[in-house]
Design goal:
By secondary structure, the chain is mainly β. It has a single domain, classed as Methylamine Dehydrogenase, Chain H. It is built from one helix and twelve strands, in the order ββββββββββββα. It has a four-stranded antiparallel beta sheet, with no helix packed on it. A four-stranded antiparallel beta sheet has the order 5-6-7-8, with no helix packed on it. The radius of gyration is 15 Å and the shape is globular.
Length: about 160
């Protein structure tokens, strides 16, 4: 069962369009990540990705955006948060699937103004802000704050 598509336009390169379908978590079929470099005329699978649940652009280096992916690469058995700094050729896990999962993740956005910041909207848990924290053993996103309290003040 396909829940909804995610269609992203590369904010730094006209005609570069990415497409993902959020899947039913119980579905054993994997959802490829698709990319078009001709403005959506044709799409092809991003071969480095096994399954794509959520995808977002964020600030990168040298006019190349970072791409964040919640899904599976390299035969992973659990959804994990990944970051690519080379337009999806390679991916680096930035969450530990054993300790950090997003079972209710609904939407994800990368910050285009500041590197290594993402926002994850969840079903029933508000919006979380994550910042990539570097360590010698594992580079992981630490979700340091929730903006749900600030949003609730509006109502």
């Amino acid at each position: 069962m396909i829940l909804r598509p995610i269609i992203l336009s590369n904010p730094l390169k006209p005609g570069d369009v990415w497409l993902s379908f959020q899947r039913n978590p119980e579905d054993i079929q994997r959802n490829p990540l698709y990319r078009s470099i001709d403005g959506g005329q044709t799409f092809s699978k991003v071969k480095s990705v096994d399954s794509s649940e959520l995808v977002a652009f964020g600030k990168g280096d040298n006019n190349i955006p970072a791409i964040y992916l919640f899904g599976r690469v390299n035969g992973a058995q659990k959804d994990t948060l990944y970051k690519s700094e080379d337009m999806g050729k390679t991916w680096k896990a930035i969450s530990d699937p054993q300790t950090l999962q997003f079972p209710a993740a609904y939407w994800m956005e990368g910050d285009m103004r500041q590197k290594n910041i993402i926002y994850v909207a969840t079903i029933g848990r508000g919006v979380m802000v994550g910042e990539l924290q570097y360590s010698q053993t594992f580079n992981v996103f630490t979700f340091t704050k929730s903006v749900v309290d600030n949003i609730m003040k509006l109502f």
